[in-house]
Design a protein that fits this description.
This protein has two domains: 2-158 and 337-375, 2-Layer Sandwich (Nucleotidyltransferase, domain 5), CATH 3.30.420.40; 168-332, ATPase, nucleotide binding domain (Nucleotidyltransferase, domain 5, 2-Layer Sandwich). Helix content is 38%, strand content 21%. It contains 15 helices and twelve strands. Strands 1, 2, 3, 4, 5, 6 and 12 form a seven-stranded mixed sheet that branches. Strands 9-8-7-10-11 form a five-stranded mixed sheet. Mean pLDDT is 93; it is low at 27-38.
Length: 382
């Protein structure tokens, strides 16, 4: 048995998701993803909100037109590393686990910029893994995305391998839908290769619009959006963005879909609640349209991420996907808020075993690659 911790803060930057993963399979086996599917359990999960000052800095520096001061960037890198370490220690303590018994921590970090296509070809996550390793004493695997980008890939999504391992079923065609700041789909056909790609905005635009107009960081249960009415013309202007029509592989981030992008499509006289309703419909339509194009025979859509708690968004997804059962990953025994964190714990395990963590057919990389770098801790599990 191997214990691992996964840590991630997504594009919504609302906090740190932490998950404690137990893996029963032998990590030195040669069966790759098939072996890794056996005996994976999420033992505990929690979300630790960021202090307001850190979240504000993340949101400001991740804007497409942000001017970055190197001292501020370095301080943020350290502060997020400290916050991630605190989250890992608290998770282990809450689960009654001695953190010294944890084999490793898989830390995604906090994305500030993701531009994997020419001429930029880079992705930047902060949250110093050296700080995490020093504070916890545990080996830390981090910086997962850049190896895939260096190999010509998008660097995202990286969860399809994990989704296939724990949520795939050879008896039916499935899709796993992550509703974070950005939406992404993993396609799990009964037969054929696993595929995955970003679909466009999920919670990110809704959260930003809600914060600006209500002072709340998100629209609880989608109630504010449900009080408004979809603006058809605005919806069509949003759906006309050329990125949405790009074929996979593709990935996106806050630098693609942000409030400036939205304002370019507003007329200026829209009621804020109506805009919120339209953004929810945009998120649902972008997913439904992508799924209809790439895997029209999907029988089941397993949703995870914060968007699962938005009742309006989930209702609209179910209405737009009448041929599929749309359900939370909780139905399959995994907390929807813990799936990505658990996935990065699993990716750390893959890295420690010398196994590839990407799916080149998903990201477009030149081949399968062992992802991330390992920062050694100063204690080892017994």
């Amino acid at each position: 048995m191997t214990l691992l911790i996964g840590l991630i803060s997504g594009t919504s930057a609302d906090g740190i998701d932490a998950a404690l993963l137990r893996v029963l399979a032998d990590p030195t086996g040669s069966g790759g993803f098939a072996d890794a599917a056996r005996g994976v359990d999420v033992l505990a999960a929690r979300t630790m909100p960021y202090p307001a000052s850190i979240r504000d800095t993340i949101l400001r520096l991740s804007q497409v037109d942000a001017t970055v001061d190197l001292d501020e960037l370095g301080a943020l890198d350290t502060a997020i590393g400290e916050a991630f370490a605190t989250a890992a220690i608290a998770l282990a303590a809450g689960a009654g686990i001695d953190i010294a018994d944890v084999r490793a921590i898989g830390s995604h970090g906090q994305t500030l910029r993701h531009r994997p296509r020419p001429p930029h070809r880079f992705t930047l996550q902060v949250g110093d893994p050296n700080v995490i390793a020093e504070r916890t004493g545990i080996d830390v695997v981090a910086d997962f995305r850049r190896r895939d980008v260096a190999a010509g890939g998008e660097g995202a999504p990286l969860m399809p391998a994990f989704h296939a391992a724990v949520l795939g079923d050879a008896r039916e065609t499935r899709a796993v839908l992550n509703l974070g700041g950005i939406g992404n789909l993993t396609l799990l056909p009964r037969q054929g290769p696993v595929r995955g790609f970003d679909t466009g905005p999920a919670n990110g635009l809704m959260d930003a619009w809600c914060l600006e107009h209500t002072g709340r960081p998100f629209d609880a249960e989608g109630a504010w959006g449900a009080s408004g009415r979809v603006i058809p013309a605005l919806l069509e202007r949003c759906l006309a963005d050329p990125w949405l029509a790009l074929p996979p592989p593709k990935s996106s981030g806050r630098d693609q879909f942000h409030l400036g992008w939205l304002r370019e499509r507003l007329r200026g006289d829209e009621a804020p609640a109506d805009v919120q309703a339209t953004l929810a419909e945009l998120s649902a339509r972008s997913v439904a349209d992508a799924l209809a194009t790439t895997q029209p025979g999907t029988a089941r859509v397993i949703a995870c991420g914060g968007g699962v708690h938005n009742a309006l968004l989930m209702r609209r997804l179910a209405a737009l996907l009448p041929g599929a059962a749309v359900e939370s990953s909780a139905t399959h025994g995994i907390d929807p808020d813990a799936v990505e964190a658990a996935g990065f714990a699993w990716l750390a395990w893959q890295t420690l075993a010398g196994r590839a963590g990407n799916r080149p057919e998903v990201t477009g990389a030149a081949g399968a690659r062992v992802l991330g770098v390992v920062v050694p801790g100063h204690r080892r599990p017994a």
